[in-house]
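Why run this: before we spend reagent on co-expression, it is cheaper to look at a predicted model of the complex and decide which construct boundaries make sense. The entries below are exactly what would go into the expression plan.
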Amino acid sequence: MVRGSRKIDENLFDAEQKILQAALNDITSGKYGDSELLPRYQLMVSSYQKLLRLTRKIFRISDNQGQVLQRHQSEIQNLLDNANQGFLTFGRDLKVDQQYSAECTRIFGKKIAGLPINELLAQGDTHTQDELAGRFEQVFIGSKDLAQLELQQFRKTFQINEQDVRVECKLIAQADEQDDRTLIMMILTDITDRIKAEQQIRFLSYHDKLTGLYNRAHVEAVLPDLENRESLPLSIIMADMNGLKLVNDVFGHQQGDLLLIALAQVLKKSCRQTDVIARWGGDEFLILLPRTDKYACLKICERIREACDKVVDYAIPLSAALGMATKENEGAHPAELFSIAENRMYSDKLKRSSEVRKDIIATMEKMLHDRCLESKKQSQRIEQLAGCFLNYLGFDQDSSEKLQMSQLARLHDIGKVALPQEILTKPEPLTPSEQDILQNHSDIGYRLAQSIGERAVADLILAVHERWDGTGYPFGINGEQIPFLARVFAIIETYVGLTYEQTGNLVIDEKPALQVIKAGIGRQFDPLLVKQFIEFMNR
Amino acid sequence: MESLHIEKTKSTPAIYFDTDNHKLSIEGQSYPENAFKFYEPLFNWLDKYLQQEQQVVIEIYFHMPYINTSSSKCVMMLLEKLEDAYKAGKKVVVHWYYDAENETALECAEEFKEDLVLPFEITPVEAEK
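The model came back. Tokens follow.
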């Protein structure tokens, strides 16, 4: 067995060993054989030899044990320091003992050995400091059972250096005649993150994450409280945001979310502190207005509408259909109130739908003309010429075809509003991937027209870039598979584009323009329609 | 011969003598404030016992890791008495037990055994938790 300590102590007692050796040499040399002190000298040398052997042994044993103790201590300290909990002990003087875990230093922000625990916990609050001192004193003077009971109930959260720290205590009775101390062991747990997480969970349980408004669960929780006499008259407002589906479909859900947040802000601004504003469903909101009669409720509805009108810079004008109901006295069930408000909201939506649609189209058109350099005049020219051509083909002035053509002239490029500006205004030829993005506009235009209820026009928007020979987009359909009005539109749009710049200047004369159209027969255009168009133009 | 029985404390071992089997056991930790004062009655008792009896079995189990330095000296004094008795022709056996999990406990036991000629057995036992 290799013994590290044994190797060390060979040198440790070198001096003593030399003295011993010299004395032994003295005895064996025979030089002092006559001395009367020799027997006592011999006894002393033998005793010294024994003592030296014993001392060496004890040193080795002690060193060995010291190493083990050191290792034990470091193992225990490791356990304590990595437990993410603060462990400390203190006696009746309330001063923290020398050994405590590293988490204590972190929590208190300093070394705490010898500092009074009541002051550490109270953080400068002298009332708490005294209260704690009194309480711990009771523990130390009381019977062990009572003290244990007292400490079991001592479970408190303290604010220490802006952390929430839960403190638990345990009584340690040291049954030892040498060290007869009763100690309190304190376990400190930093629960700041847990409390934050719990608050977040509580918040999310009763709030809508996107808008920060209350959610349905909160309304259901507070509704019973609002049914009492003190809350009467109780009014409610149901709000349904207009155009959310359109914005989601055309501009993406991120824009839709922004619009929802904008409406939430409008509702908050228009209501009072005491009102409960909640997101009820996807695009529906609910407001509970305690102690509010129908006149006050109407006023709030007005405020909401006015505030919506003031909101600009979003994909579509912010608006919501509103329905309200008021409960004047006890008895009426909340479900009835909700149902009345909901019905009124739907009739409001219906009543204002064409107005809302008109607003949305106008905003889109404006955006198109502002962003995409698409001239309003160009659309008007197409609308005018297509109208006349349809008359020539025998369609009545107020036929549905003429109406659709007029819509198509206005909305055929509406999908471009959702495309990146740099692609729309790029002076150089587009790359193939940019071409793909650009061609996507007919698809977006289709969805947009669908969303505002213009289904027939939506189909036409999707078809205006198809070609007679089937090489167009998005589906590559050909001949008469292409809707009739889309075929007409393709000719008119090309002709207007050839003859007028966006700025309105004449580019080429009618005759060469018609030649270009003619050249497209059977490839881009319907041969019969081109023939009729040339006849119409030459008329 | 009067029996010997000293209760165990947190810092001192239990000492018990089984007269039927001539067996003296010392078991526990040993770090009394005054080791000589603690072991002195045992020394005196053992001196008397060895004068009268011809045999003794000593079982020693110190719960390591710690016996203090003074206790070590006292244990060596105890072993020296036994060694002298053995050399004088008495039947003396020492059984030294140590915690199997603690490798230095074996080294310590071997230190105690060193230089002795009496029968000295060292046996590992499962450590107390």
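The radius of gyration of chain B is 14 Å. Chain B has three helices and six strands. Bring this page to Monday's planning discussion.
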